[in-house]
Every structure is written in structure tokens, then in C-alpha cells.
Amino acid sequence: MSFITISALRSILGARAGRRASRTEGQRAGKTAGRTTGLRAGGLAAAVLVSLALLTPAAAQGGFDSWKRSFWREAHAAGISRRTYDQAMRGVTLDREVIAKTDNQAEFVRPVWDYLERVVSESRIENGREKLREYAPVLHQIERSFGVDREVVVAIWGMESAYGAVLDNHKIMKPVVRSLASLAYDGGRYKSFGRKQLIAAMKILQTGDVDARHMMGSWAGAMGHTQFIPTTYNAYAVDFDGDGKRNIWTSIPDALASTAAYLNSSGWEAGKTWGYEVKLPRGFDYSLGDTRRKRTLAQWSKLGVTRTEGRDFPRPSDEAFLFAPAGAKGPAFLMLKNFEVIKRYNNADSYALAVGHLADRLRGGDAFARDWPEGDRPLNDDERKSLQALLNRLGHEAGAVDGKIGNQTRAAIREYQRNSGMAPDGVASLSLLEMLQGG
Ligand code: CA
Predict the structure, then answer these.
(1) 111 C-alpha vs ligand 1 centroid, how far in Å?
(2) Domain extent listing, the chain
(3) What spacing in Å lies between the alpha carbon of 355 and ligand 1's midpoint?
(4) 166: CA distance to ligand 1 center in Å?
(5) What distance in angstroms lies between residue 233's CA and the mean position of ligand 1's atoms?
(6) pLDDT at site 16
């Protein structure tokens, strides 16, 4: 399940990760491979975890209890009442599982295509189509109220909670106050996130929309069918079934309308798609896809870019950027404004592409026209450094051996690819590294 960190990362690391990702294609691929990269605890967090491990459980709980008393002042200053605070914190113990989650050090190099295969599975498509039928009347109302296509709303539902199936998983679902208090107390780089979200969670309790016992979520506090973190809930959740409560945990109308409300507030352009799979002409200059440089669809057409479906772009003046995570070896896309709106939900290209594609499949659309390079993948940090060193040794100026695939490294890759008779897409893939290593 990818949903656990989605909202959390969107909020804490999303903006920063997004900037990083937009800097270079290679890094984009890295993040695409796993937004979990951002989950690595910092050195300080690791040190705190080690020191905590040396404490006895009772001592750790004692520290947590005294923290709970001291946090009252901050909560009170934010408008939480004594009654809400006491009810929320009563009996809450430190959740060591939550703390352990913050120490995920793995740098995943899973390629976007593996991710897509997993999250846009046949069963998810099937289940989604069933949900479209089952909730057709309410989805119709949601479309009319918020201007967001039903397929996109249902696709996000599928991505975030497998249409609610994960909410029944007691191994994953945790009491939100306990998780957030644990993060606020000892969550390393999640500490300030935990504090802010804990106060937002108490504000939810104060409204009476839900009580603490039913306010369940992921270890990072992502809640309900839509996996909203508390601040997102406070900003965007809506009561759509009219019972006076915003219930994203057990009311499907509330949950789906909340998703649509969030997209609508984020600038969703009604009646438009997220992007197009496109065909690039032979000899295409991949440096045009290096940055987030947008061009109108008419300009892309002039460069020889066409839809794989053969049809014309319906609105030639719309602006789009090129996204081709596997370079010349895989599908390419022109991404429109709504792609970026989906990323407000989770700031990862892979996520937004999966949502868009799942929505298209729910609508009856086909799989991508181009195949992905199965077996190939983006490089991890050490491999990126090896690649840079090899390129430098061969006289292609890749710049500093720092594991960052910037413009200079990509230019060096393209030079090498051109000299070797390959399509110069500048993508730092495993197959390219192996080729270089083979001499
Ligand atoms: Ca409601």
C-alpha cells in the first residue's frame, strides 16, 4: 500500500521534494521511484532513536506523560479547550511502532513502471468500475457541485485507500491522536509535523465531527477514505450527505465530495484531462524535456509531437510540459494543468500519472500505447556517482561526482549516447550504466 505516507509527505516533505524533483530529470526519476526517499530520518533523528532505545519502556512513557502535560500550553494557545485536550490525551501512550516508521532509511529505486503496474492493477480497475456503478448518483452530484470528473475522484479513492479496503486493516489503522502525539514527542524530522497535525486533530475533535475513538488513520495521521491529514481535513473536508458532520471515515459521499472539493480548490479545470500520451518524432531533441519548460500544445505539435491515439489536441493553446521518465525507451506524456492539481494531493509525478491513468482506465481507456523498459530502472545514489565517474573518464564532462543528475551530467549522457548511436535522451538508467561499465 502506498497510501500510508501520501498525505504526510505531501505536507511535510512535498514542497521541498517537488522543487528538488523539478530540478532534474534524474532526480525526478529517483523520486518517482519512491517518494519514500524523503522519509529517511536525519542524523539527529537517528541519534534520538538510539537514545530512546536505551531507556526502559517505563522511563520512555514517563517522559511522554510529562510531555503530554507540557504540550497543553501550545494546544491552548491554538484554541483547544481544556476539555477537548483532556479527552483527547486521556490514556494515550507512546506508540513505538510509529517512531520506528520514521526511521525508514531505504532509498528505493523502484521505477515508475513498477509502481504503475502495482497501483493501477487489473483488480483496482475492476473494483473502481464497480464503485462507479454503485455510487453513480452521488458521483453525478459531486461532479455538478465541484466540476471534477467522477473517474478522477474514484481513481484517487482507489489510490488512497483501495476504495476504503485499507480502513479495515487493523495492522495499519491507528488512533490518530496517539500517532501524532508520538511523532510530536519523538518523531525526529516529523516532530513539528506531529505537533501541527496533533493540534489540527484536536480541532476536529472540538468540532464534534468525530470522536477520538473513531478518528483512525495511518501512522502519519492520514485519515479515512481520502487519507486527509488533519490540516487538509480542516481546510477541505465537506459534509455532503447532509447529516451535519464531515465524515471521511464512513460516509462515502462525504469522503468523495471532500476529494473533489480539494481538487476544485486547488485549481481543477473542469472538462479537461490531465495530459496525453504522445509520440515523439525520430531525432527528437530530449533536452526540450529537461526542465519544466511549458509550451502550448500547438508548439509541441510544431516540434512533431503527436498523440498516440492519432487525434488532434482539442485545445492547442493549453500549456503542457513533457514527461518521459524512461526517455526514448518508454511512453512520453504532455502534462496539463490538472496533472499539477492532482499533485496537490501527493506531490509525486508517479502518483499523478497513476491517478490520471487509472481514471482513464475506469472510463474504458486502454493501457499506454508504448511499453515501459521492463527490467531497467533509475540509478541509486552510488550508481549515479559511478555513472558520472565513468562519463568523466571517457571525456564526457559530467561535472562533480556528486550523484546529482543535473544539466551537465545529462548533457554528458546525451553526448555519450549520440557517439554510441543511441537515442540521446539523457536518462541515467541502469542499462546505460551497465553499458558504460562494459566499456
Ligand atoms: Ca456527513
Answers:
(1) 39
(2) 6-74, 78-107+165-223, 381-437
(3) 25
(4) 21
(5) 13
(6) 33
Q: What is the pLDDT of residues 380-417, one digit of tens each?
A: 999 999 999 999 999 999 999 999 999 899 999 999 99
What's the gap in Å between 211 CA and the centre of ligand 1? 14
Determine the distance separating the centroid of ligand 1 and the alpha carbon of 358, expressed in angstroms: 27
Ligand 1 centroid, distance to 291 Cα (angstroms): 43
Centre of ligand 1 from the C-alpha of residue 351, in Å:
28
User: Model-level pTM?
Assistant: 0.85
User: Is CATH 1.10.8 correct for 78-107+165-223?
Assistant: yes
How many angstroms does the Cα of residue 238 sit away from the middle of ligand 1? 7
Cα–ligand 1 centroid distance for 112 (angstroms): 36
Are β-strands 319-323 and 295-296 bridged in parallel, bridged antiparallel, or unpaired? antiparallel
Q: What is the pLDDT of residues 320-366, one digit of tens each?
A: 999 999 999 999 999 999 999 999 989 999 999 999 999 999 999 99
